[in-house]
Sequence to fold (86 residues):
Amino acid sequence: MPKKITRPKNTFFGETLKEVRIKLKLTQTKASERAGMTQALWSAYETGKIHPSLDFIFDLAEKLELNPIEDLILPTERKRKSSADE
Fold:
């Protein structure tokens, strides 16, 4: 039987999301309530189990009163680039 190949999880957005949540001094529960989702769904984004669409990022930024580019997209891309350089 062939060995199962697993793909490493991309957690760059999740790390950014967690940093933003902590900066806003919110628990996952409070952040998810503000974002209009369950805590389990929020956790899935933070841990990289699911990946956001661009529409999701802009909608989330609006609900959390963030700048989608400056607060969510650029920090995520910096993490991705930094990881690729290693």
The chain is about 65% helix and 0% strand. The chain has a mean pLDDT of 89.
